[in-house]
Structure formats: structure tokens, C-alpha cells
Amino acid sequence: MRLLHFKTREVIPMGMLKELLLKEYDESMEDFHRIEVIVTELLEKTLAEGGIRPMQIAHRIKSRDSVAEKMDRKPEKYPTVKLLNDLIGFRIICYFSEQVDQMAELVRKVLVVESVSDKRKLMAPTAFGYLSLHYICSLPKDQGYPEELTDYTFEIQFRTVLQHAWAEIEHDLGYKTEFGIPLDVRREFSRVAGLLEIADEYFAEIKWRINDYVTRVRTSIQEDNADDFKLDLVTLTEFMHRSRLMTSLLDEISSITGAELMEVSPEPYLKRFDLLGIRTLGDLTSFIEEEHDHALLLARGALSMADLDTMASTVGFYYICRARLVFGDFREQDIREYFKLDENEIGASAELIERQVQIILRLRKKYDVAE
């Protein structure tokens, strides 16, 4: 069999064509790696600016053996390695199905999309299985990229975590076509694939509900109408950032040293507030109003001579809880139970816990708090 060589336009034997194309592959390897680096950095930057945090951006260059095998099967289709659209491949794995189209839209803005293969639309309505969105792309010629690199195409696959899991398991089991395995096994494949597809939809629904909950909590806090919300990580985080009462206390404490606030999750305080009987945002608001002056008193005593550049964004919670321990009606054993929470959370030793208890007891004596 003889074929036309892409560059020389000469008719040459197929074996020689394959040899020439593999030589072209070897000589182009540096270009492949350059494209890998450029596109990976571009994808990371584009998705970050678009507000999407993917689980993974993977990439690979097709091996020499894979290229040779592909040319053996379809020599007339690939007269040059530049026509191997998937020679350089990228896979972006996201968490939620709605992010697939969002990512694809962002990619369209920074790369030239030569063709699209949307397996979500190609699959029969009654079938289940591997779903994914594939783009064949190239670098735009008018954005300052090296001209020799803009002639190459590469593939980008967009998948969710569950779609990726299905594709990897399917590949590992060697399941290629519906005729490749017995009917009863195919039925099991369809059932599992259907469950994964439903799970993807449920995760997207859960994400939407959480986002809606965050919006409702945030709006209610800003309108001073959030007293009935139960304390959880969402309500506590939003309260820490949005409540005028809380942000005012944070400003007063941070101004003692001039330190900047460093973002820290308030999750550990959920158990502490529960132990202190604080279970709603209304309870928390009353708590801060009652202990505000005491919290500032303790903060000034501890921080006035401190040289701090940063302090945790939870410092307000730290001092109002400490104020309640010092000025509230607590027995020594109650105080000890409070600090025992550190045992599980940060691995605090019994010695450290006891030291904290004794600090609180000394402060009670200093401020003449009745036992």
C-alpha cells in the first residue's frame, strides 16, 4: 500500500510513511511539552478567575506506541502527527454536573474550539453510561503564543468526579461495547451507571439548596432578622462576617494590637456554644450583648502588650466564651469540661487543659467573681 506524504507530496510505501511520521513525533516532543505547560497554566488561571475550583486538571501526551498503533489502523487518516487531535490530552474533573458547561464556556473564551463531541447528547435516551463533553482545541493565533504551537490541536475532556469514576472503572473492566459482555452483566452496568447519573443530579441539587440557604441566612443577618436560625457552620460563618454586632467587636479587639484578621473556620465553636447553651443566632446575639464589655476587658488585659501582626477571625468568639467562663456562674468542673473539648479537636494534653482551667480560676479571683 502506498500513500501520499503530507509534506513532500510524494507517494511512498505505507511502512516508510509510518517511519517518517514517528520521526516527526519524536522531533515534535518539545513542542508537545510546551503546549502542555501553556494550556495547563491557562486552564488553571481561567477557571480560577471564573470562580470554579476543579478537583483536578490532568494532562498527558500520547505514547509513541499508541501513535504507531493508531497509524497502523488508519494510515490514510493521519498523514502528519498534527492531525492527531488527541495526541495531547487534558482532562478537567469537577465536582458538580452544572460546572461542566460552565467550565466549557470559560474555555471557549481563551482557546479556539475546533470541534465539540458532547456524549451527553449522543447517548440514547433509554441508555445509561459514560457521559462527558469533549473539545478539540488549539491556541489562538492572535494572543502572542509561539506561532509554531498554534498549528497543533489538542483534546480537552470535561467530566464530573462520578463520570470520571465510571469511565475509569469501565476502562479497567475492559467493557468496550454492548456486545462485549453477557446481557445480565450489561444490565448491571446500566443499573450502576444510572445510579451514578442520579447521584450527580442529587449532588447538584444539594449544592443548590446549600447556596440558597447561605443566601437566606446572609440576607436575614444583614436585615437583623436571623434570631430563629439554628447554629451550624453556615449560620456561624455568616454571622461572623455579616453581623454588625460581631464585626464591631472584632474591630475593637483587633485595634488593641493593630493586627490584621486571618480567616479561620469557626467550626470548633459550635460545640463550645452548645456547651454554653447557645443554640440559635438569637442566643448568640444576646450572648455577645451580655459579654461584650467583659470580652473587651479580657482582650485588653491579654493583648495590650502583645506584638501581633495577625489574629484569627474567630478571636471575638474566643473572648466572649472566655468572658462567660470568667464572669458566669460556672463551677470548676464545668470550666474543665469546656476545655476538654480541646482534647479531641487539637490533641490538648491533660496538663494543658488543667493550665487553662487554672488561668480562668485566677481571673475569677482577680475580678472578684463569686464562687
In short:
With 371 residues, this protein is α/β, with parallel strands linked by helices.
- Calculate the terminal CA-CA distance, rounded to whole Å: 100 Å
Task: List the uncertain runs.
Answer: 1-11
Number of spatially distinct domains: 2
Task: Specify the CATH class of the largest domain.
Answer: Alpha Beta
**Share in β-strands:** 5-15%
Please, could you describe this protein's structure?
The chain has 14 helices and 9 strands. With 371 residues, the protein is an alpha/beta fold. The protein has a 5-stranded mixed sheet. Helix 6 packs parallel to helix 7 (233-242). The longest helix is centred in the middle third of the chain and has 40 residues, at 183-222.
Describe the structure using short key phrases.
elongated, Beta Polymerase, domain 2, 2 domains, alpha/beta, 371 residues
How is the topology of this model organized?
Blueprint: E1 2-4, E2 11-13, H1 14-49, E3 56-61, H2 64-73, E4 88-94, H3 98-108, E5 112-118, H4 119-122, E6 133-138, E7 154-160, H5 161-173, H6 183-222, H7 233-242, H8 244-257, E8 260-262, H9 268-275, H10 281-303, E9 310-312, H11 315-327, H12 332-339, H13 341-346, H14 350-366
Parallel strand pairs: 4-7, 8-9
Antiparallel strand pairs: 1-2, 3-4, 5-6, 6-7
